Amino acid sequence: MNRLKFALSSDQLELLIAFEKSQGLTHLSEMMARDPSVVSRNLQKIAENYPVLKKVKGRWELTPLGIQVNLRTRTYLEDQEKLFLTVAEDKKTILLGCSEDAVLVIINAQNGLFDATQEGRNNSQAEKNIGRILRHWRAMKRKVFHVKHVSDNFESIFFRNSIGCEIFERCRAS
Predict the structure, then answer these.
(1) How are beta strands 86-87 and 93-94 bridged, if at all?
(2) Domain for residue 139, yes or no?
(3) 42-48 — which CB contacts under 8 Å span 24+ positions?
(4) Are residue 69 and residue 16 in the same domain, yes or no?
(5) Domain range for residue 47?
(6) Of 33, 26, 14, which Cα lies nearest the Cα of 118?
(7) Which residues 6+ apart lie within 8 Å of 152 measured at CB?
(8) Looking at residue 117, what is its pLDDT?
(9) 67 and 99 share one domain
(10) In the listed set 74, 99, 130, which residue is the last one of a domain according to the structure?
(11) How many CA atoms does the CB half-sphere of 159 hold within 13 Å?
């Protein structure tokens, strides 16, 4: 059986979408929380394998195919979100595979992780996504448990009663 495989990875597709919105390599590298040389190499790798980017007068540009890929990627992401978060007529969110007594457990959604991982983060949308899930969960009046990493080491980003030990603002009860 032949396995289906995406031509571009999700990281590459995210980079292409961010590229479309960026105002140059420096801005793009800030958006992606990556060094400009790393972003440039990633763009080069994409361009070598797929005709979605080209260099014009020393600057990267999306090709018509790149614009089409971004359009389809955004459409796919929107459709996927609709599948996972479907709002029923009674305004309750249906979460796939959840029983009525299910609880949401959020682990280490703390400011210390936010501060420590800015450079080279693998999921810059984590806080936003956790917040969205929490809003839906709380709207259904379901239980939420937060598990925190707490340290007695004064130098730790999770030192007891420090800002780094606190839960992300988006994750606090409203």
Answers:
(1) antiparallel
(2) yes
(3) 42/11, 42/12, 42/15, 43/15, 43/19, 46/8, 46/12, 46/15, 46/16
(4) yes
(5) 10-74
(6) 33
(7) 159, 160
(8) 45
(9) no
(10) 74
(11) 7
pLDDT at 114: 66
How many domains, in total, are found in the chain? 2
Cα–Cα distance for residue pair 46/19, rounded to 1 Å:
12
Q: Kindly state the tokens that stand for 92.
A: 């309750």
Question: Does 16 fall in a domain?
Answer: yes
Predicted pLDDT at 71: 95
Residues in the chain: 174
Q: Using alpha carbons only, what angle is made at residue 114 by residues 143 and 118, rounded to the nearest 5 degrees?
A: 145
Tell me, what amino acid is at 137?
A: W
What torsion, rounded to 10 degrees, do the Cα atoms 77, 79, 81, 82 define?
170
Query: Which of 5, 70, 14 shows the shortest CA–CA distance to 39?
Result: 14
pLDDT along the chain (174 residues), means of 10: 83 92 88 88 93 91 94 90 57 55 84 60 72 82 86 87 82 64
pTM: 0.50
